[in-house]
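Q: How do we represent a protein-ligand complex in a form that can be generated token by token?
A: Start from the inputs.
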Amino acid sequence: MTPTTAPECITVRTEGRVGIVTLNRPKQLNALNNQLMDELGAALKAFDADDDIGCMILTGSEKAFAAGADIGAMASYTFADVYKGDYITRNWETIRSIRKPVIGAVSGFALGGGCELAMMCDFIIAADNAKFGQPEIKLGIIPGAGGTQRLPRAVGKSKAMDMVLTARMMDATEAERAGLVSRVVPLEKLMDEALGAALIICGFSLPSVMAAKESVNRAFEGSLSDGVMFERRIFHALFATADQKEGMDAFVNKRKAEFKHQ
Ligand code: DAK
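Then emit the structure tokens for the protein with 4-(N,N-dimethylamino)cinnamoyl-COA bound:
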């Protein structure tokens, strides 16, 4: 059996049915390295498989959600190294396979791979000190974990081009105005706000929450009519759940629904 070791680059805890992962490389402003991405992926997968968890929060420190991929770790790589090794593709996008909601609670810098990781969360709640950016151009590279694709979808072509080409950072106010984040709150309220949202989600039927996530994500793949048909079929399927009966019966009888997540 493989021995399990405690994670070193993240911390993991729960609050009720909420699983919370905190990036924890403070000296490097949570720069993302191979070990951190392995640990993050494993923690998210464990929460996804845990029946006692209904929603997750991914967060960092007050100063940095994550300042990007670890530049020191990749500085000496050659094209052959990164191409042959499919550089960090293996463990970078595990978060995209997570079926329960993941809320990004972002304070401080979310740069490069850190911004890309935040954008892979289902939605972002930002502290008022958050700064988002794709500064890879300053290093002679471009975003490599979806930044050139997710940023334009979130904020439109003009702002995305501006950020990717000039490396300028976007503050929390601009990020909310542009649609990159769903809410901005004072720094000291960030975790309360994220936890409040997560607990609301946890109160709903998990199958319908997962179906809603899957359907919204479908909006970013393929045509509108295919997306609407996908939504329609999932909508129909939810009438097979006990929670649909419970939710509608509770409304009709003016009582609180008691979802069993089935
Ligand atoms: N990597 C490694 N160390 C970093 C770092 C990073 N990205 N960002 C900061 N640090 C370290 C600094 O080197 C410094 O270490 P010491 O000198 O104390 O040992 C410490 O964190 C504190 O940083 P500063 O002293 O610079 O702090 P300041 O407040 O003055 O400045 C800053 C904060 C965030 C503005 C600055 O540190 C900065 O510009 N950092 C670099 C930001 C950046 O360029 N990020 C993009 C990196 S490239 C892919 C997936 C992902 C990616 C690519 C491919 N695939 C799946 C294929 C992603 C690429 C990137 O993210």
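The beta strands are 10-15, 18-23, 55-59, 64-66, 102-106, 109-111, 123-127, 131-133, 170-171, 183-185. The chain is about 45% helix and 15% strand.
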